[in-house]
Amino acid sequence: MKEGGVKGEILERYAQALLSLAQDNNILDQVGNDVNSILGVLKESPDLQEFLDNPLIKPADKKAVMNRILGDSVHPYTRNFIQVLVDRRRIMFLEGICKEFQALLRKLNQTVLAEVTSARELTDDQKNSLREKVLAMTGARQVELETHIDPELIGGVVIRIGSQVIDASLRGQLRRLSLRLNTVA
After folding, report:
1. pTM attached to this predicted model
2. End of a domain among 59, 76, 107?
3. What is the per-residue pLDDT across 44-63, written as a single tens digit (0 to 9) for each?
């Protein structure tokens, strides 16, 4: 999730601060869940991101909206952290900070993120099988699967782990076969 330049430094600095706060207070799991919830809310509502990005909206209004949306579902430290972001005019980086926090937490927990794209929804057995294969490949302690659906794949899966891509899709196999046939002809 690394971003370049000043933005990347901001994301990393604030994510690291939140991680340290959570570690120091033994609330790492709670804050991790809070961050996941916040990302879910931001993903579901592009209007909320626009609202937070708008410099013409007063900080007090941004705080009020975030408090209403999150309510008591997040830890008070997480709520305070968001208010600090508003006060320091960094709230527009909330999504990036949350993603950077997730990356830092994965590294701390020796967890890898495997992005899996398939033609249709995977069953629980298929997800567990993929987790086991990724664990064997990476040597990580845990695997976090992020699944996407792409009907153009026809069948199979494409797995992305960091910069490594494993294309086990039918489309990928057909493409490789086509390349081999073209080099023979």
Report:
1. 0.74
2. 107
3. 998 999 999 999 999 999 99
103 and 133 in a single domain? The answer is no
Select from 49, 47, 26 the least CA-distant residue to 98.
49
- CATH for 76: 1.10.520.20
Given a contact cutoff of 8 angstroms between Cβ atoms, the answer to whether 113 and 144 are in contact is yes
Residue 142 reports pLDDT greater than 80: yes
Whether 9 and 98 map to the same domain: the answer is yes
Instruction: Name the domain boundary from 78, 107, 136.
Output: 107
My answer on whether 17 and 52 are in the same domain is yes
